[in-house]
Amino acid sequence: MKLVCAGMTDVGTTREHNEDDFYLSEGEEALCVVADGMGGHRSGEVASAMAIKAIVEFYRETTVDGKGDARLNDGEDERSLDEYRLVKAIRQANKAVFQAASESELYRGMGTTVVSSYFIEGGVYFAHIGDSRAYRYRNGKLEQQTEDHSLANEYVRMGILKADDVEHFPYKNVITRACGLTDEVEVDVVFREVEPGDLYLLCSDGLTDMITDSALQEMLKDHSDLEKLAKILVDQANENGGADNITLILAKVEE
């Protein structure tokens, strides 16, 4: 399996600075991460950068098989090693952001969403906190792989709000879970089998708030050039208003 990736981040048309960050797979690492920071006085960009740094460092400092590494051999649960490694990396990020926010008044209350993917032979793990999303485009169909940790989504699940009404819900961007707001955080993780030709999209809500899923599905049809496609998506989000920072990663599975 070969993984081809492209990523892009943009400040949008209304924000003064970019609080998003992302990390692209390098070599055989097969790790991709998008983070959407929050907090005043530019602390959001500190939170997202800090989370990315903690996740990547954890991956680089732990062995693939976990042998001899106490951080992976603590017997916490029965997850597969690949799944547990991804979840623990995000937990490390949560602790790093929370500690920084607790120790500095400047960073008080900062946090970030995280959506990540880790590709292995034949499959991919998605782990996330918040409302940044992962999608799969396969055989002309786009499907969301993560479930938003947001007030709007909670209301939909409870039957208080209809899915069709989310777009006009005044608190649709209120998230119920984020990285760095508490000492411990629950990380949602799913595994999906991959097929040659699959295209995966990780993105902040600056993209999905500006482009509907149906429009995204249409735009992803031509994915021969991922760098070009990334720019097309960002440009479209900006044309549609660009109300927030826009960040995305495209990852294509090839033979």
Structural overview:
The protein is α+β, with helices and mostly antiparallel strands. The protein has a single domain (2-254), classed as PPM-type phosphatase domain (Phosphatase 2c, domain 1), CATH 3.60.40. It is 29% helix and 27% strand. The chain has helices spanning 43-61, 81-103, 151-158, 205-208, 213-219, 226-239, and strands at 2-10, 20-23, 31-38, 111-120, 123-129, 133-138, 141-144, 188-193, 199-203, 246-254. Strands 1-10-9-6-7 form a five-stranded antiparallel sheet. A five-stranded antiparallel sheet has the order 2-3-4-5-8. A hairpin with a 2-residue loop joins strand 4 and strand 5 (123-129). Helix 1 (43-61) runs antiparallel to helix 2. The longest helix has 23 residues, at 81-103.
Summarize the structure.
By secondary structure, this protein is of the alpha+beta class.
Describe the secondary structure blueprint for this structure.
Blueprint: E1 2-10, E2 20-23, E3 31-38, H1 43-61, H2 81-103, E4 111-120, E5 123-129, E6 133-138, E7 141-144, H3 151-158, E8 188-193, E9 199-203, H4 205-208, H5 213-219, H6 226-239, E10 246-254
Antiparallel strand pairs: 1-10, 2-3, 3-4, 4-5, 5-8, 6-7, 6-9, 9-10
Helix pairs in contact: 1-2
GO molecular function, one term: protein serine/threonine phosphatase activity
Organism: Microvenator marinus
Domain PPM-type phosphatase: 4-253
Oligomeric assembly? single chain
Helix content: 25-40%
Structural class designation: alpha+beta
CATH T-level topology: Phosphatase 2c, domain 1
Briefly, what CATH class? Alpha Beta
From the alpha-carbon coordinates, what is the Rg to the nearest angstrom?
18 Å
